[in-house]
Amino acid sequence: MQQCSPTRMELQKINSQVVLAIQGRDLLRQKMDALIQEFFLIMESATRSRDELEKTAEDARRALLIARAVDDTITLKSASFATKRSVVIDIHGRKVMGINIPVLEKKSFRKTVIEREYSIIGVSSRIDETAEAYEKELDLVIGLAETETALRKISHEIEITKRRVNALEEVVIPELKETGRYIRTTIEEREREDIFRLKKVKKILQKKKEKM
Prior knowledge:
- With 212 residues, this protein is mainly α.
- It has one domain (8-199): Helix Hairpins, CATH 1.10.287.3240.
- The protein is 77% helix and 6% strand.
């Protein structure tokens, strides 16, 4: 219980603090509910993306194994060395309940045969399919990275908000209410003592009056 002067002005101040603390707790609860709802929406998207990524990665590995088995290794390596390897990603942010969530620009990394810059004549369709499969996998990896980052940030904010709600509900508000009860009890006790003294003084004055 915080130290304070047991006065009516202090009691009014404490009561105002209780009201503000309760309003703050309710607002934080609303924020937490909204964050949890957003978290599960993103979680559904992340689950679908993980499943799709797993299937695409398996398809890419299978395509690579077939290309290695049918085409000679030298041709496969030459095509991989000739392909452009730079990956440029534009990142900006969006706000979710005051949280900065990074957003990766939705651009596809799949290329045409010409854009891959290897020889069209010297490369089989199997190598093309392998390249396309890994480009698709890269698209999904980058998209999933955005989703996973959003999940981590929102999860962290939910935990912080939950701790604040608990602190208000279990510590701050009970302490303020206890302080208010202490002040109210002290004021009431003081008033009872004042009434008792007044009655006592009144009796003394009455006795003096009777003697006179």
